[in-house]
Structure formats: C-alpha cells, structure tokens
Amino acid sequence: MGVEMGKQKKIFVKIVACLILMGVAYRLYLSIIIPSSSSPQFIAHYSPPAPLPQLPTPPHPHPHTTSSPGSCDIFTGEWVRDPTGPPYTNTTCDTIEHHQNCMKNGRPDSDYIYWRWTPRDCNLPKFDPKTFLTFMRNKSMAFIGDSISRNHVQSLLCILSQVERPVEVYHDKEYRSKRWFFHTHNFTLSVIWSPFLTEAKIFEDYDGHASGAVRLHLDQPHSEWVNQFGKFDYVEIAAGKWFLKTAVYYENSTIVGCHNCKIENVTELEFDYAYRRALQTTLGFITKSDHKVYTLFQTTTPDHFENGEWNTGGYCNRTVPFEEGETELRDIDSIMRNVELEEFKKAVGDTNGSTLKLFDTTRLALLRPDGHPGPYRAFHPFEGKDPSAKVQNDCLHWCLPGPIDSWNDLLINILLTE
Ligand SMILES: *[C@@H]1O[C@H](CO)[C@@H](O)[C@H](O)[C@H]1NC(C)=O
Ligand SMILES: *[C@@H]1O[C@H](CO)[C@@H](O)[C@H](O)[C@H]1NC(C)=O
Ligand SMILES: *[C@@H]1O[C@H](CO)[C@@H](O)[C@H](O)[C@H]1NC(C)=O
Ligand SMILES: *[C@@H]1O[C@H](CO)[C@@H](O)[C@H](O)[C@H]1NC(C)=O
Ligand SMILES: *[C@@H]1O[C@H](CO)[C@@H](O)[C@H](O)[C@H]1NC(C)=O
Ligand SMILES: *[C@@H]1O[C@H](CO)[C@@H](O)[C@H](O)[C@H]1NC(C)=O
Ligand SMILES: *[C@@H]1O[C@H](CO)[C@@H](O)[C@H](O)[C@H]1NC(C)=O
Predict the structure, then answer these.
(1) DSSP H or E run through 125
(2) Among 26, 156, 189, 274, which residue has the least CB neighbours within 10 Å?
(3) Does 13 reside within a domain?
C-alpha cells in the first residue's frame, strides 16, 4: 500500500514537472515565433497571451546579500505610501521625454506617484541631489544599456536639475546617447545606447521595424562604451530585453549559432546563451581593465502587460502596487535574472581592484504594475477617438515622475555606504 502510494506520488510529481516544462517550452517557442519585424523598439516581444505555469520565483532574501550585522539588503522591502510625493513635477523638470510624460499626456490618476520603496530592515534616506552632486564633483558617470537605462537617467536628471541645471554637451544622431555637464560641480553624466552591451549590427529603423536579424558579436564589448571607458569613474550597466530578438550570434568573427534566424546549418540557440556570453564579455572587460571603475550591474526589469502582450492588446491599467505574493516573475524574467546573478557572482570574485555591485531592482520593479505610461505614452490618446479604438500601450517603461525615481534612493545609498 505504502509502496503503491509512493509510486503514484512519484508519477504525479513527474506529470507536474512535465507540465511546467511544457509551459516553459511553449513560452520560449512563442518568443521565437513572434517576428521581430513590426515590433516597436520600445517594447520587447515575448511570452504568450494566456496564463501559463510559472517557474518558482528566485530565492528570497536575495542570494548576494550577507547577513552580517549592520548590513542590510535594501532590495528587500515594500512600497509604502508617501504623501510628500516626487521631488519634481512635469513643470519643474523640462527634460521629461514625451513618451514618459504621463501627466502631460493626460493620465487621469496620480496615486502612483505617492509611493516610496522602503527596505524591510533598514532606513533608506531620500535621494538628496546636493549630496549626490557633491559626491560626484570632478567625476564622470555613465549609464550603459537600452531604453530602461535612458529612462533611469531621465529620472536622475529631473531630480538633479532641481539643484543645478546641466548643459547637454553631446547627443548622437538619433538622440539615444547623450552627455550632460554640470558646471558648478564639474560632473559629467552620460547615457550610452548599447542595448546588447557587445558589438551588434542592428537592422532596424527608429520605430523598431527590423529588416534583418541582428548580428551580434558576443565576444566583443561594444566600442561605443569601450572607447570612452577610461573617462568614467562610475558606470551602471543594464540589458536584457533586446536579447529576445532574432539574431545571429558570432564569436571570434565566426557564426556560432542564432536565435530564430532559420538559416540552414546554423544551430538554433536560446537567448540566454547569448545573454550569458555577452555579460561575460562585458563584466570580463570591466574587471580586467587597468582603469578601475565603480560598476553597478542592474538586474532585469520585468514588464506588466496583462491580458495580452504589447502587440496583442495587452494593457496595464492598475492604479496601486502589488503586494508581496500577489504576483510572480514570469519565466523569461526569471531566466534572465538567474543568468545575471550567476555571471555577477563569477565576476565579483575576481575584480582586480574594480568595484562591482549588484543593482537588484527586479523585484521592486515587479511590484509596480501601476507605474507605466500604458496608453499615455502618447498625448491624449483617446481624444477625438472612438473609445473602442485600439491604442498602443507601454507597460515596460516608467512614467516620470514615477516608481523609477526610487532607483536613485538606492543608487546613492550604495555609493555612500562604501
Ligand atoms: C503638466 O501636467 C498637467 C496635468 O497634470 C498638464 O495640464 C500640463 O500641461 C503639464 N505641463 C507640462 C509642461 O507638461
Ligand atoms: C576638483 O578638482 C579641482 C581642480 O583640480 C580641485 O581643486 C578640487 O580639490 C577637486 N575637488 C574634489 C572634491 O576632488
Ligand atoms: C574637473 O574634473 C577633472 C577630473 O574629472 C579635473 O581634471 C579638472 O581639473 C576639474 N576641473 C575643475 C575646474 O575643477
Ligand atoms: C579565433 O580565430 C583565430 C583565427 O582563426 C584562431 O587563431 C584563434 O585560436 C581563435 N580563438 C578562439 C578563442 O577560438
Ligand atoms: C548544410 O550541411 C550539409 C551537410 O554538411 C551540406 O551538404 C550543405 O551543403 C550545407 N548547406 C549549406 C547552405 O551550407
Ligand atoms: C590587475 O590590475 C593591474 C593594474 O592595476 C594590472 O597591472 C594587472 O595586470 C591586473 N591583473 C590581472 C590579472 O588582470
Ligand atoms: C482595466 O481594464 C479592464 C478592461 O478594459 C477593465 O475590465 C478593468 O476594470 C480595468 N481596471 C481598472 C483598475 O481600471
């Protein structure tokens, strides 16, 4: 009898495991079949419209923390109401990008700006722009990554400009890489467009319409940031979503495989292979460089499309944060974050004098489905329109002001606790 029960249990466990794996496979499959042509550049495309089994969430508390007395994991905590609101508005900051200017674009609710990230075990002071600028005197900091990095820099700029208005001293042709100079503090702030961190030939127009697969050199760090690396004192790097795109992968200038390219005799590889290799190349370059830079390595930012994806009518109209346990990381994001944690752990053990810190914002971002522009990425999206008309939602980037402002509280906390 006991043996019988044991057997049945084992079979049941096997079936459940099988179902979970099928769910994962189905999602990966969908991420492969959704073509990257016609995808707006601001949103990555993946995961299916129907709810599917979830992988377990990453262990909690975070694996990188030590529980030595006095130390505190600032990334474990909750969003707490804060009636004082954000340090700037759409009128006191005039550099908010149109797609993130939710107030101006007519978003009707504003509760989402009255929350602050609050670590469970310690006090996280509010970002003080004066302290930050004093700390950064004679220094240079760069944010390297995709549009999430740009979103973060925008937030930082809005807060800093309340103390000193920077001068924009550089932008590239497409306004994706920019540099600002704060004269009074002799501080240079850059954002560098490098969505893959490694060398990539991207065949896409500004709206994200692809005319061919990305050609991605996984062993060559992107010259765009490498050429300037010697000038930086601080960098924050972040990537992720672009690795879901159709791409041909190169190492040593030879094709090693591809993702969804459907070229004869080219091995199909999953996106996490490429992501891992690109992170190894990037972190390897940083930790082997003779120029010692303080590096913050940011974990993936999940999106909040519900009842569909970015291209199938998905939306994000929640107006309050999730509570702990109310949501789970999707498997794509779990896979990405696990790769990030593993590669960070490897790199941090051998930095040769550089400082490497994890900027682990995945979970706190996950809890904020209410902070995205949604339809208000466009100016008054419903004005003069049939209410049933389809509008494009952005459930990945953040409204400014918005939840991303809290990232700066975390940033300065890490810098100052050195
Ligand atoms: C700021 O937002 C308000 C709505 O909250 C809007 O009426 C106003 O036009 C916006 N101003 C700017 C400069 O964006
Ligand atoms: C900044 O640089 C100037 C000129 O080199 C120097 O006088 C000053 O002490 C420096 N300040 C800091 C905080 O490093
Ligand atoms: C500004 O900072 C740079 C180092 O980044 C330093 O060489 C220079 O002397 C500083 N200039 C002034 C005016 O403080
Ligand atoms: C890269 O290619 C060159 C020339 O074909 C070869 O000599 C070298 O061993 C290769 N390196 C690796 C890491 O495969
Ligand atoms: C693919 O590989 C097969 C077997 O090695 C070969 O016969 C064929 O020509 C290859 N096709 C291409 C396009 O290289
Ligand atoms: C460590 O950095 C120093 C420069 O500070 C350099 O001379 C040395 O070669 C580096 N060691 C390794 C193993 O990269
Ligand atoms: C969000 O939109 C859905 C579908 O239009 C609707 O059923 C739901 O009530 C909305 N939720 C909120 C909080 O507005």
Answers:
(1) none
(2) 26
(3) no
